[in-house]
Amino acid sequence: MNGKSFLVDLTRCTACRGCQIACKQWKKLPAEKTVNQGSHQNPADLSFNTIRLVRFSEPPVKGPVQWLFLPEQCRHCVEPPCKMASAVEGSIIHDEATGAVVYTELTAQEDFDVIRGACPYDIPRQDPVTKRISKCDMCLDRVRAGMLPACVTSCPTGTMNFGDREAMLTLGAERLAQVRKKWPKAQLVDAQDVRVIYLTSQPPEYYFKNLGVGAVEGSRFASRRDFLAQFLRPVKGMTSV
User: What value, to the nearest 5°, has the Cα angle with vertex 236 and ends 102 and 214?
Assistant: First the structure.
């Protein structure tokens, strides 16, 4: 499998939010008017104009307080369910060279509930006025020009890494081996099925409920492939009639 991937090493994230700001600057996305929600996380959630968000979490565990940070974005699935669910040709593009999943202006013609519902990570968001759907596009314009995504260039700690997929998988395996010496439960989340691979020191659900598919014990889906099989079952049923 070729193309590009991110390795996001959450053991190194300090929640500086440089990536969140860099994303907005490069995409020329406006700031959002927010109110204090009782958390340093700001804004409270993803939106059409905030396609990258650093989430803050304090999991209820015994012992010292843990403050976990998750710079969340589209995972750029190897087999994107949102594209499978698309009913409008050309609205969702799966770039062959990089693997980037890109939403175009034609997403305004899609059924938003279907597209968002197809995403196991609950990433897509819609502009209430134009009805266009948005998310991270891997800074495809920058990558095609030989540049790194804006979020990666802004990261001062080595949390954000980007490159050829095999190189990122190798780096991820090396970092996982190092991190497990201190945090035995560390893992690479959904590494074989997404192009944004998170390295966690704690169980994925401690960071955010939608961080991984099947990562939570007792999850409805044991793996991403189970999710895709479940998602495509009604589609196959309709096409076989």
Answer: 65
Interior/surface letters 54-90, b for 16+ CB within 10 angstroms, e for the rest: bbbbeeeeeeeeeebbbbbbbbbbbebbbbebbeeee
C-alpha 165/C-alpha 171 separation (Å) is 10
Percent of the chain at pLDDT > 90 equals 82
- Record the pTM: 0.89
pLDDT of 184 reads 96
How would you classify the pairing of strands 187-189 and 160-164?
unpaired
Contact status, residue 118 vs residue 75, Cβ threshold 8 Å:
no
* pLDDT band of 226, cuts 50, 70, 90: low
Numbers of helices and strands, H then E, in the chain? 8, 10
Residue 209: CB atoms within 10 Å: 12
